[in-house]
Every structure is written in C-alpha cells, then in structure tokens.
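Chain X:
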Amino acid sequence: MAIEAGDFKTGLTVIVDGDPWVVLDFQHVKPGKGAAILKTKMKNLKTGSTQERNFNASTKFEAAMIEKKMVTYSYEADNTYYFMDMQTYETYELGADQIGFNKYFMVDGLEVNLMIYEGMVLNVSLPATVELTVAETTPAIKGAPSTQSKDATTDTGLTLRVPQFIEQGEKILVSTDDGKYSSRA
C-alpha cells in the first residue's frame, strides 16, 4: 500500500531506502515558491539511528508491515535478553544494543511487545510505566518541603529523583519514556 509523504502521521512505519522507519515527528512547510515539503524526524527500526529528513509532499512510500507480538521477559545472560511467547513457548533474543535504555525497566515476568519485521526482531515496546523497587536512597530530611526530591537507585540500576517520603525497599512506578518517578505502586 502506497503512502504519500503528505499523509504522514506520528508512529507511522514506512520503507525508506529498503529499511523500515518510524515517523517520530513531522511538519508541513510551504515555501514561498515551489511545492510543499515535509520535514520529518524518523527512526530507523533496524539500526536505531534517528535522522531528520525532508521529502516532497507527493513522494510515495511503501507501508512497513510491523508485526507486534506479546511476550514475557524471562532473563538476561551475557548481554542477551530472553523473551518467551507464553502461547507457543517460542523464545526470542535481543542484544543489549537493541534493548538500550530499556534495560533499566526489564523485570522478571514483564509483558512487552516485540516489533518484528520480515521475521527479524527489531525492538521491544514497553508499557507506559513499570513497577520497580527502590534499592538505595537516603532517609527523608525532617522538615524538608514535600516538593523536594532526592536521589534513588532501583533494583535494576536506574538512578532517578524521587520525593522525600519514598523509603528504601518501597515499590514505585517509573515512566518508561523518560525514566522518571511517576507514583507509588
């Protein structure tokens, strides 16, 4: 199915130069003369690189058929992360370079979506928030304003800022988009 650049939407996956790309951001620009152009910020799903590219609004692209498969995170060994499809018991492996920053959110039994293109696992899609345990933090300062935050480290190694009332051993919800504290679990 052909898609014109003028019909781009955030999250759309298309084939550009033989690789699947996802549109992260786009802006229609109409210069004083000539045809409208589309300024885009796109991410290559195979390599993980992000680029800003300009296209003529009438340029046509092929839609990338990305399959999403719900799997459960099992474990990590030798910089390889293992996932299992709980219906078929098929296992999938992703390298540490493919997981990237998401390694801080990988807890046993976490259900995630794997993005698969032509049989190749490209990426992992996490839920919006993940429950983590605070492994290390300083005690609350008496009389400190409730808006003041302090450093904490989770059981997965993520370092973040949390409110003063959070104690060591507490479970918290963390946003997987930016790694920031969301709320108590």
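Chain Y:
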Amino acid sequence: MTDAPENVTTARAPGIHRAMLVRPTDNVEAAAAWLLMVLGLVVAALSLMIGAGVYHDGMRREGFEAGDRTRVEAVVLGASAAPRAGTSGGQYGRLRPSVPAEVPVRFSGLDGVEHVADARPRGPVSAGTPVWIWLDDTSAVVAPPRDPAGVLWDAATAALGVLALGGLVLATMWAAVRTAVRRSNLARWEREWAQVEPRWSGRAQR
C-alpha cells in the first residue's frame, strides 16, 4: 500500500511535465518571438536605409548649394541687436534656437556692382565690421550651404527615429502577445483545476 502513492506520483509527474512543455500557448509565444525578432531586423535594416538615403540626399544638396553659392566679404552698415529666441513668445521661447538679427551690409556683387542688402551675420556686430555672406547667381544674399555635420545629424536623427518608432511598435506587439498568452494559460489552468480539485480535495468521494 505504501508504494501506490509513489507509483502514481511517478507515473503522473512526467506526463504533467510534458503537458506543461508542449502547451499550445508556448508554441504561439515562441513563434511570435521569432517573428518579432525577424521584424526587428527588418526595422533595423530599414532605419539604416532611410538614414543613408537622407545622408546621400543631404550631401547632394550640400554639393549643389556649395557650387551654386559664392562667399563674398561685406561691410556691416549698422550695429546688430542681440539674437532673438525663436518666433513665439512665452516662457518656452528661451528654449528655441536663437535667430541672428538682420543688419544692412554693403558688398560687391558678382557683377562688380556695389549692393546694399540685409544679412544675418553670426553674433553681435558693429558698424564697419567685415563679415562673410553668401550670394546666389543673381547676387542676392542667401543662406550658407548646408554643413556636412548638419547633414550627418539629420541622417542619424532620421535613422534613430525610425528605429525608435519600430521598436515601440514591436514592443507593443510583444506585450499584447504576452498578455494574451497569460490570459489563455490562466483560463486553461482554471479549467484543469476545476477537474482536479474535487478529486484532490476529496469532495468527489463525499
């Protein structure tokens, strides 16, 4: 009589162990994990492609602007005011990048004719200060060509943005899968416990 419980336990334990290892939800969770890993690699590759595309496009534009614009020396005609923060007021205005104030400058255009126009020199300047400005083919004052460091920053920002957004979506999908699997396991455990508990507690023999 003393061997019966041990035999029963020994016979049932491996079956229970195998049942726990081959639950359908375990297979679903494993398949979802592999799928999300593959999608993660796709998102990483896509972010690199987008970053490279932004970089090549920016460098192409930088080369075009550098070849289309000419730097000339100009003389400031009036003192500049302090740089102003952004275009909107309020307590957050100081967080916006500062915008150089416009000052009148005199310069010789590409045609040799003297011009007077407004420019945005970096930092405060006083009258008579020589500054560098950029002109287009019509001798109009334009913004300087894009900086390669700025192009690289734009490319990195685009790549990281895609990677972060894709990672957030994949993390949300994984959390949804885990929640669904957990609920399914709990429901199955409750059904199995409802079948086992009467025999385990002895209520079925009463």
